[in-house]
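If you are new to this repository, start here. Below is one unmodified record pulled from the training split, so you can see the exact layout before writing a loader.
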Amino acid sequence: MMLDGIMKHLPEDVAMYILSRFPVKALLRFKFISKTWSTLIESSTFINIHLNRATTTNNEFLLFSRSYREETEGFKNALSILSCGNDDDLIHTISDLDLPYLTFTQRYLFNKLVGPCNGLIVLTDFEIIVLFNPATKIYMLIPPSPFVCPKGFHRSFRGGVGFGFDSIVKDYKLVAISEVFKDSEWGTDEKEQKVEVYDMRIDSWRDLNHVDQQLPTVYYYPCFERLYNGAFHWYAINDRFDHVILSFDISTEIFHSIKMPATDKSSGGKKYALIVLNESLTLICYPNPDCEMDPSKDSMDIWIMEEYGVYESWTKKYIIKPLPIESPLAIWRDYLLLLQSKSGLLVSYDLSSNEVKEFDLHGYPKSLRVLVYQESLISIPKRRCEHGTKFKIC
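And here is the target side for that same chain:
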């Protein structure tokens, strides 16, 4: 209580500066010290100061998601928060979180992580969408789209879900790209693209009717969807069969296509991942894990886009000898490339020393997902509908 008395006599801006240096876990405890502290910590001014405070890579955490099989219950998913110890070891900061609502099928044995944006992430099983703050453990179920497929049609998202913050209207948005197919005995011979945006502030989905161009077809890779420079990015193929990065500006709601660099031919084809390295959009081209690798031809190539949106600025930065991996997952601290092995083990590759390291962290093969994030106090708004409550994982 003595500390509370001292803080009361400090100017509010000084008190905010002092408290902003603390991690979220400590601030959540401080809220119970006094009503004064609780009011200050919950204020939008303080939350923004804490969000925009000067940070280093020591303030970064890893969200680690993986699936595992239980004999009686089938597949389940666990989400862990990891921090870095000595010698780049990864340690659990928060024990495994089991989010409700999300399901698994034989086809989708993982939860998709989208984000982060200001400490918030989105998780989805391609049907259910959950907004989540891992630091506060508060989450909200996003209402389903009101769109209903006409009889004789079905809908596919192909992984086209994005999330970001509109800096103009100060609102968080979700964007969902789907294709509506006409069923026929010969397959899906007719399709129509549909783009919907969910505005967090008004708790409502709406059609994006001004999209009059034929968008490239979006495909899902484990480490490609990326929020960068105010836009969300997906891997896509256009009608000329070019591999492109499809971007969606969260504020203007305009789509653009960024042509990917011409990649070297390999024995079994390439797959792709998109990361941010040295504050630049970066493309990883890696051998198809389903094909046998030829060490004389195959390599993992890392391309940096030195000027955003300019095709001519693509520069090949690294050429890495082929590794027996399933896919890249994330880049941490601009030198540690995190990957998943074909057996479902978390592995790192040091871009500076070429050292490969295995961690005692694993899941069902192909189910690993990793996001690098910085925690925040950003609140999740209450729903206005009949389900209008936020939930907390205890």
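Two things worth knowing about this chain: DSSP finds five helices and 26 strands in the chain. The helical segments are 2-8, 12-19, 24-30, 35-42, 44-51.
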